[in-house]
Write a structure and sequence with these properties.
The protein has about 140 residues and is of the alpha+beta class. The protein is built from four helices and five strands; from the N terminus they run ααβββαββα. It has helices spanning about 5-10, 10-15, 60-80, 125-135, and strands at about 20-25, 30-35, 40-45, 85, 95-105. Strand 1 and strand 2 (about 30-35) form a beta hairpin. The longest helix has 22 residues, at about 60-80.
Length: about 140
């Protein structure tokens, strides 16, 4: 099931405002977050428009978490962060998704409070493409 007003469901212009589709995984989509103050930040969005992880079966939840794990492993291999933070947000955009936020010791917000979209770092199309290729190469 899809929601016509949901960026994760519809992609296109709605998704382009904040993310770039990388690829489909087992039961989700992998999306590069355009704001890259934490290099490698991605979103893993579940394939269907459901609000909560409790809204899917145990089998689907396990597959979703396997997708999250696969993406995290790719981030660790590609960007060598000191830590990856995981966040499931969506008070208004009720589509099950998880933000994977690589953190780097001494880097932006290390040891501080997380900002959802600090709006500090945007890349060129070529830089986004290079980042996506690094992620794909490590999936």
């Amino acid at each position: 099931m899809k929601d016509n007003n949901c960026a994760y469901c519809m992609r296109g212009d709605l998704l382009d405002k904040f993310g770039i589709f990388i690829c489909d995984l087992q039961v989700s989509s992998l999306i590069l977050f355009k704001e890259q103050s934490k290099p490698g930040r991605v979103i893993v969005a579940y394939k269907d428009h459901v609000s909560e992880i409790v809204d899917i079966s145990e089998e689907e939840r396990n597959l979703f978490m396997a997708d999250v794990t696969r993406a995290a492993k790719a981030l660790h291999a590609a960007f060598k962060p000191n830590k990856v933070n995981y966040g499931a947000y969506g008070d208004t955009g009720c589509h099950l998704h998880m933000h994977l936020v690589p953190k780097y010791e001494g880097g932006d917000e290390w040891g501080g409070i997380f900002q959802m979209n600090p709006g500090k770092v945007y890349l060129t199309d070529a830089e986004y493409s290079e980042m996506i290729e690094k992620i794909k190469a490590n999936l």
